[in-house]
TrEMBL record:
This is Nitroreductase family protein. The keyword Amino-acid biosynthesis does not apply. InterPro entries: Nitroreductase, Nitroreductase-like, Nitroreductase/BluB. Residues 38-205 form the Nitroreductase domain. It comes from Chitinophaga nivalis. Pfam families: Nitroreductase. The lineage of its organism: Bacteria, Pseudomonadati, Bacteroidota, Chitinophagia, Chitinophagales. Keywords: Flavoprotein, FMN, Oxidoreductase.
Amino acid sequence: MSAQKMIDGYPFVSYSHETYDAPGMISHASSFLTWMDKRRTVRDFADTPVPREVIADIIRTANTAPSGAHKQPWTFCAVQQPDIKKIIREEAEKEEYRSYNSRMSPEWLDDLKPLQTDWHKPFLEVAPWLIIMFKRIYEVEENGRKRNNYYVQESAGIAAGFLLAAIHNAGLVALTHTPSPMNFLGDILNRPENEKPFLLVPVGYPAAECWVPDIHRKPLEDVAVFY
């Protein structure tokens, strides 16, 4: 049992973390990089069922992410029901059709060509689960008073990263889908006013025939500066 003490009236517990010597650290960091580098965004899903408890643990993992003042300003809605997934696909495709045909600039559309995406989103029905992440802008107390959350966008972004890593760790694949605007998700799922859609993530197994673009990540020298 962890030791506990009070600091300025608030409880704290002792903490320790497994550490490694330099060779062990290099090995662990390298193997994790190799494993994470295998993660790909997938649009070809199998309809093979995924146990609910697996999705629950994936969400629990995302919920371990740090957040501003530890407010944990997020709600994860996990959708398995085919009828709800069908409605979500229909509404998402309406927005995506408008985006591809009038909202996106020619430059944006040209940048998307290597990915070969369009407004059709069948994966929203094929994938066994959709995880819709909502960011909670504020909380509502029992007396109706609104209490702001802090660094909501940043906190939600970190939790989304944890979510994707957990999905990859479970041997599943995902897609980060952001139809714009996404307000229809709050309406379909009957979410309260303090929650705004942040990310729509289909989750499942890759299809037997699954294709991903032959693209490559930027090298370290293009994304990092050491001082």
